[in-house]
Design brief:
4-stranded antiparallel sheet; alpha+beta; 119 residues; isomerase
Length: 119
């Protein structure tokens, strides 16, 4: 497999009441997630994204603290992946970024994400 076929990314996931699985490492019972609307999740993520882009916060630090994905333990790092391994909107967004770029809000069945392409 050529290197151009795989990408590497980190992400920050905020789950909400519409998420496929309403639990996370921070919220095992899913209480907070079940009471979070998609709008609230997007608003939180927009603030986080602005803080990262302005240099106020580091992506890895915020992912470790706030992401509802178990990848939070690795600063949001998902490692390398190829086409067909992630949900389509996530894959499309990642492949559309240049290394070091951060996506706008991306919606998947898991929740809302911002993605930083790292490789």
């Amino acid at each position: 497999m050529s290197s151009s076929q795989k990408v590497r990314a980190s992400h920050i996931l905020i789950k909400h009441e519409g998420s496929r699985r309403k639990s996370s490492w921070k919220d095992p019972e899913g209480r907070r997630i079940s009471s979070t609307t998609r709008g609230q999740a997007v608003a939180q993520l927009k603030t986080i994204r602005d803080d990262i882009l302005s240099g106020k916060s580091r992506f890895e630090d915020i992912a470790s603290q706030f992401s509802d994905c178990s990848s939070a333990k690795r600063g949001g790092d998902l490692g390398p992946f190829g086409r067909g391994q992630m949900q389509k909107p996530f894959e499309d967004a990642t492949y559309g970024l240049k290394v070091g770029e951060i996506s706008d809000i991306v919606d998947t069945d898991s929740g809302v994400h911002i993605i930083m392409r790292t490789g």
